[in-house]
Amino acid sequence: MYETKEFSKGLRIEIDDHPYIIVENQFVKPGKGQAFSRVKMKSLLSGNVLDRTYKSGEKVKKADISDQTMQFLYSADGVYHFMDNDTYDQVELQKDQIGDNWKWLQEEMIVDMLIYKSIPVSITVPNFTVLEITHCEPGMKGDTATSASKPATVSTGAIIYVPLFVNQNEKIKIDTRTAEYVERVK
Amino acid sequence: MQNWKSGASSDTLKSRARFLKQIRDFFEKNEILEVETPSISEFPSVDLHLESFSLNEEPGNHHHYLITSPEYHMKRLLCEGVGSIYQICKSFRKDDCGCYHNAEFTIIEWYRVGWDHWQLMNEIEQLLDNLLGCGLADRIAYSSLFQNYLDIDPFSMNYEDLIRVCQKNDTVLPDYLDDPDMPRDEWLNFLMGALIEPYLGIDKPIFVFDYPSSQASLARICPENPLVSQRFELFYKGLELGNGFFELNNSQEQKRRFDKENEKRIQMNKTPLPIDHRFISALKEGLPDCAGVALGFDRIMMLALGIDDIDNMISFSWKRC
User: Fold this and answer.
1) In this complex, which of A25, A28, A58 lies closest to B193 when CB atoms are compared?
2) In this complex, do B186 and A55 lie within 8 Å of one another by their Cβ atoms?
3) What b/e sequence results for B265-282 when a residue is b if at least 16 CB atoms lie within 10 Å of its CB, and e otherwise?
4) Residue A142's pLDDT band (boundaries 50, 70, 90)?
5) Euclidean distance between the first and the last CA atom of chain A, given in angstroms as a whole number
6) Is the confidence at residue B268, as pLDDT, over 90?
7) How many other CB atoms are found less than 10 A from the CB of residue A135?
8) Cβ separation B47–A30 shorter than 8 A
9) Which of B23, B56, B140, B154 is the most buried (most CB within 10 A)?
10) pLDDT band at B62 (very low <50, low <70, confident <90, very high)
C-alpha cells in the first residue's frame, strides 16, 4: 500500500482492480480544514485519464506491475512476438497494445515490457533509434540552412519529416518520444 | 546525486534576504516591535487538522512539540501589555508536503493592539503591495464566494447540494466525504480547496471574510450575526497566503473551543492533546482588543519570483534537509 504522502508522478497504483500511473499529484490544505491530495492518473491498460481525491493519510494499493526487458522477434497478422533473452520465453502483444510503437519496432530491438499480474500489457521502446529511409524525394545538395522539411518513409513504413538535404537509402536517428528527426547516421 | 545542493538558486536566496529586510523596514516604519518566541513548546496546537511534531523524550517525561505557529506565545506577550508586535519565524506542520507546502516553513505573524480585522486587512494590503506591487485587494464574504462560484449557500447546504455541485463541476466526490452525516465544514473545506481556491485572486489579491462560526478557530464571533466569525483569509493567484482574526479574548470561550477540538479528535480516532493552560491563564489576565494575522513568507516569495515549487524557494526543503 502507498500512503498519500508517498504519491508522486510516475507511481503505479491500483484502483478497482485496474492499474494506473500517477501523472499529476497536488497536495491541498484548505485553511483550517482536512488536507487532501488531488490525483490525476492514467490507466496503464486503456490510457484513460481519471481524477481522484484522497484524504491525507489514506492508502491505495500498489499495482502488481513489473518491467521486463524483451527482444522483439517479428509481427504477423497484427500480433507482435517478443522473447525474454534470459528464459527464452515468448510472449505476444496485440496491435492495439503496441500503439504507435509499431513505427520504431525492428527485429532484435530491445524493449521494456510492462507486466501487470503476469500479463504483458504494453511496451516502451528506446528513446532513440536508427532507421533507413526507403523512400523520399531527392535531396537538395548544400541546403542545410533552411528549416524546411519533407516527408520520408522509413523501413518500418512510418513517415518522418526530415530536412531537405536527406536522401533515400540514408540512415537517420529518430527521437521515438516525439517522432522527430535528430541527425543523419553514417 | 546532486541533492546536497540548495534547491534555491543564489539569486533566489538574495531575493529572500532583500524581502526580509523590506518586511522588517515596513514594520519598523509602522512602529511594530519585533519579538522572538520559542520554536519548542510544552503544548501543541489542538487544531483538528494540524499535526505537530512531537519531540521524543524519555518515557514518563512531558512531551514537547515544535510550534505550528507562534500564536499562543505571542498572545501571552500581548497579555503582558507589550503593544503591537511582529515576528518572522519558522513553524512546523507534520505531513504538509507538496509544491506549496514544506513541513518547515517561514511565517510572518503580527498583532495590532486596538485594531479590528478590517483595519488589519488594510495594513496587510499595504505590505503585500509593497512587496509584490499588486495594488489594492478585493474583499468578499465567505457566503458570497460560495454563491458566486458554486451557487450554494454555505450555511444551509446539504448532502444533495454537495452531490449536485460536484456533478456540475465534473468532480468525483472523494470517498471520505461521501457521507450524509459528515459535518458540513468538511464538505465546505473540500469545495473551497478543490473548486474555489485555485481560481481566487487571479488578477489581484482577495480577502475572504465572515468565515462560518464553526470555522472560527481563534476568532471572535460576529456580534451582529452569530453565524459568522471575525476571521479572514487572504488569497492571491490561486494561493492561500494568510489567515487572520479579530482575536478572541474570552478565556472561557477559548477553553471551550479547545475542549471541543479535542472531542472531535477523539471522534476521528486521533489522540486528544494537552491544552495550553499558560495561554488560557494569560487570556484570563486579559488580552487587549487586537487583530492578528499569519502570512506564508515562502509563498509570497514564490509569487514575487514566479517560482512554482517551494523546493526552489527554500535552501534545503524537506527532501534535501
Assistant:
1) A28
2) no
3) beeeeeeebebbeebbeb
4) low
5) 50
6) no
7) 12
8) no
9) B154
10) confident
d(CA A24, CA A42): 9
Domains in chain B, CATH or no CATH each: 10-135+243-312 (3.30.930.10)
Closest Cβ opposite residue A33 in set B49, B95, B172: B49
Shortest distance between the Cα of A63 and any Cα of chain B, in A, equals 20
CA distance A106 to B271: 61
Q: Which of B98, B176, B233 sits opposite A31 (nearest CB)?
A: B233
Of A30, A35, A57, the CB nearest to B192: A30
Return the DSSP state at A44: T
Q: Per-residue DSSP letters for B158-178?
A: -HHHHHHHHHHTT-PPPGGG-
Residues in B closer than 8 angstroms to A27, CB to CB, are 96-101
Interface of chain A toward chain B, CB-CB under 8 angstroms: 5, 25-36, 38, 51-58
Residue type, B60: G
> Model confidence over B8-43: pLDDT tens digits?
999 999 999 999 999 999 999 999 999 999 999 999
pLDDT of B1 over the 60 cut: no
Q: Which three cell numbers stand for residue B94?
A: 507534520
Confidence band for B3, pLDDT divided at 50, 70 and 90: confident
pLDDT (average), residues A141-145: 62
What residues contact residue B133 under an 8 Å CB cut-off, 6+ apart? Answer: none
Query: What percent of chain A has pLDDT above 90?
Result: 74
Q: Which of B99, B174, B217 sits opposite A32 (nearest CB)?
A: B217
| pLDDT computed for residue A144 by the predictor | 62
Q: Which residues of B touch A3 (CB under 8 A)?
A: none
* Contact criterion met (CB below 8 Å) for A29 and A2: no
A31·B99 Cβ contact <8 A: no
Q: Mean pLDDT across chain A, nearest whole number?
A: 91
Q: Using one digit for the tens of pLDDT, what is the confidence trace for B166-176? A: 999 999 999 99
Neighbours of B53 (CB within 10 A): 18
Residue contact B99–A30, C-beta within 8 A:
no
Size of interface A-B (CB pairs under 8 A): 79
| pLDDT tens per residue across span A73-87 | 999 998 999 999 999
Contact by Cβ (8 Å): A71, A110: yes
Has residue A170 got a pLDDT over 80? yes
C-alpha cell at A109: 530491438
Residue A77 has a CB neighbour count (10 Å cut-off) of 5
Strand partners, A83: A71, A90
Name every chain A residue with its beta carbon within 8 A of the beta carbon of B50: 32
pLDDT at B96: 85
Tell me which residue of B216, B155, B213, B218 sits closest to B188, measured CA to CA. Answer: B155
